[in-house]
Design brief:
10 helices; 5-stranded parallel beta sheet; globular; 335 residues; 4-stranded parallel beta sheet
Length: 335
Amino acid sequence: MIIDEQALPEGGPLFSGYQNEDIILSPRHFSPITSDDANESKEHFDRLSELLHSNRLFVAPFCDACLIYRRLRHANDLGAQILEHKNLFWYTDGFIQDDVHQCVNQSYSIPSNFVAEFSGQIVQPVKPNTTEPRYVCLMNNHREHRDQTLLNLHHRWLMNRGNVVYHQRTFDVPGLLDQELFADTRELDKETYKGHITDTPLYNDIMIELVSESYIDNIIFITEKSVRPMTVGIPAIYIAGHGYVQALRDLGFKVYDSVINHDYDNEPDDIIRVNKAVIELQEILDSHNPQQFYDATIEDTLHNQKLLQDKYLNKTADAFLKQWVQEIKTTHQIM
């Protein structure tokens, strides 16, 4: 077996010239095929096609494998063509709710992304020391559903009731915080991506998080954003894909059903689902003070933190991906 160093650090550079090998590789090798530069796209298509001609390629379920697959499928003819290859085995890190190619395996799609990516610490929940019900909503990259979220929060007079950050926005509303998304206390070179951490003052005196996932259209893409509120010891409402909250339940997490009405999760229309989620946030803020909310949710919070520690989060570096490698070696009879 050949392991690409972009998939696991103990791997090596991905060369051409392999024959009759099973190769584990990062989905990022396929991204250039989606380029608008026809020459760049063709160059990378030819390189990967050469590897596929006499080797089996197994794409690891991390680094946005599901999103890269969707771009390949729709970007150009070369992307769609390479997905038809019989020697390609594509494992996703998010559940795609459309029809997928025969090469796609979604059995690792739900837990893999947040397990592989999260790098924060679990924080012991503490009783609130404030009487004002406040929330946090942390958004970085521009997305249309985040524009809709911001407009909803503004329309419902909720901006001044929370810590709302949206970096790559295309418009402003009063009450937005102009602040670094995560004020990391660790050295920069020890953090792969600052958005994964939990040591930020933006969580101070907060009783609930409005999570805005990266993608919500025809996909359940559970990222580290779902894990952050659990690890800092607060509940969450999720602006995410249709069925996202149910997927969390299926993984064993408690989603505070005795307090939070997640009926918005059943709404198939993306924009209406955003609206309903914000309405539920407003209802929570209007009906609970921080102590009441803490008392009603602490049991589920402790359950979720224990589940993360015992079952999901990596106990050693890259543990999830290493386990995946061992499992596909058995499934595909790889030596």
